[in-house]
Amino acid sequence: MKEGTLDRPTFEAIEAYVLDRMPADERAAFEQRMTEDATLREEVELERENIQAVELGGLSRMLKGIAQQDREDERAAPRWTDFLKYAALIAGLTTAAIWWMNRTPLNEELYTEYFTPDPGLPVKMGTTGHATFADAMVAYKLGDYAEARAKWQPLLSLEPGNDTLRYYLASAWLAENNTAQAIPILEELSQEPTSTFTARAQWFLFLAYVRSGEEAKARTLPLDNDPTYGARVKAIKSELVR
Amino acid sequence: MGQLNTEDRSTPDTTWMDGFRRNDQIALRSIYKAHFPAVRQYVLQNSGTVSDAQDVFQEAIVVLWVNVKQGRFSPGTESGPGGFLFRVAKNKWLDVVRSAAHKHMKVVHNDQALDRGNDAPDDIEERIARLRGVYEKLDDRCRAILDQYYFERKDLATIASGMGVEEDSIRTIKYRCMMKLRAFRTAISGEESEAS
Predict the structure, then answer these.
(1) Tens digit of pLDDT per residue, chain A (242 long)?
(2) A130, A124 Cβ separation under 8 angstroms
(3) Fewer Cβ neighbours under 10 Å: the N or C end of chain B?
């Protein structure tokens, strides 16, 4: 490789060769020169790599643009699940309207402050229907709660005692702000001491009760000494007393 | 141009490879749209987010692109790039999951964890890192012109018209920018020679 600047005609000849813009006869002559000139071969490789570096920069920029566009399209595109969501929302709002009258703003504030939807499972179930379960879990993690419920509900018909399905079905309802649908499921799970979801179900049931103004029921849940939820439960209870 | 048929199993289709060699944006977008959903599904099932999936898939496309540019990609028995992209993206995600920061994550479909193959060998990864380092040396003005000429494959007259300058000015700026890269590379090469 030569020190200093490469002259412009040589640079442009190499460029035409690398970009395959050289006429066939010139290309043959150029390749003949390369076989005899190691410095020229080195320059060709260097320029090829520099051009590729620029191309890679452009490619990376373009890929980021596609990803960004994808995210925007996903947000903008109406899907059938959206209609299900709206239907569920209307049904939920109608039911919730009754509770709304009995609820104080403080309850709602506390619920909003402490409620975070369950992040979902990364694992598949070891029971039947796991592929559908996994698909539904992906929908859940994408925020398509109605789609997740639509896929989990038939599995629950096959395995009505499955605590994983019941817990995530309730989680989907809660994530859609439909505490009325979630409460009966969570009440059942809270009474099952052998389930791995018992404490979590009790925590979400506690929040659902707080939100719906059923503070007396919330206080009966044995969470005060729970290592994960105890501190938060006590904090909410003390807020409710004020 | 319509959507490319990237998975036609009756006839080996390498149209997409020509598209990659020419940086054809329609071909690149088509490959992205066709094969990203499988990777997204996999990453989401394994503790990741859509953003994580986009990151590893973009890296996989870059590995594929460099392989094609280097003449090292052989479709073999595969009719499209889908299998290659999925394997590379999956292995990259498994690397992330196994990293110290993600040890708490669980992997659902680890069936191909041993199937690392040779899709993204070290020399390709090193080349990608080196090319990125070179590109970093360019200032914004050089990038704007060189991107259009070498990546988008626009001619000098079109670039000049878009930037409101003479064609010859663009040609001169392009030459100077490329000489800056060459000077950087020769300096690095000299330092390496002295060190060894």
Answers:
(1) 566 679 999 999 999 999 999 999 999 999 999 999 999 999 999 999 999 999 999 999 999 998 888 888 777 766 666 677 777 888 888 887 776 666 567 888 888 888 988 888 875 544 445 778 888 888 888 888 888 898 888 888 888 889 999 999 999 999 988 898 999 999 999 998 888 899 999 999 999 999 888 888 899 999 998 888 999 999 998 888 76
(2) yes
(3) C
Interface test with A, best of B33, B41, B45 (most A CBs within 10 A): B45
SS3 A174: helix
Distance CA A215, CA A35 (A): 87
Contact B62 A124 (CB under 8 A): no
Number of H helices, E strands in chain A: 12, 0
B14 Cβ contact partners less than 8 Å away, ≥ 6 residues apart: B75
Nearest to A167 by CA among A143, A129, A133, A142: A133
Partner residue facing B29 (CB), from A52, A61, A66? A66
3-state secondary structure chain B: CCCCCCCCCCCCCCHHHHHHHCCCHHHHHHHHHHHHHHHHHHHHHCCCCHHHHHHHHHHHHHHHHHHHHCCCCCCCCCCCCHHHHHHHHHHHHHHHHHCHHHCCCCCCCCCCCCCCCCCCCHHHHHHHHHHHHHHHCCCHHHHHHHHHHHHCCCCHHHHHHHHCCCHHHHHHHHHHHHHHHHHHHHHHHHHHHHHC
Q: What is the pTM of this model?
A: 0.60
Q: CA A208 from chain center: how many Å?
A: 24
Q: Do you know the residue count of chain A?
A: 242
CA-CA distance, A169 to A160, in Å (whole number)? 12
Query: Around A230, how many Cα atoms within 13 Å sit in the side-chain half-sphere?
Result: 6
- Tell me the shortest Cα–Cα distance from A150 to chain B, in angstroms: 18
Residue in the structure block whose two tokens are 């870059």: B62
CB-closest option in A53, A70, A123 to B134? A53
Q: DSSP class of residue A22?
A: S
**CA nearest B120: which of B161, B61, B177, B69?**
B61
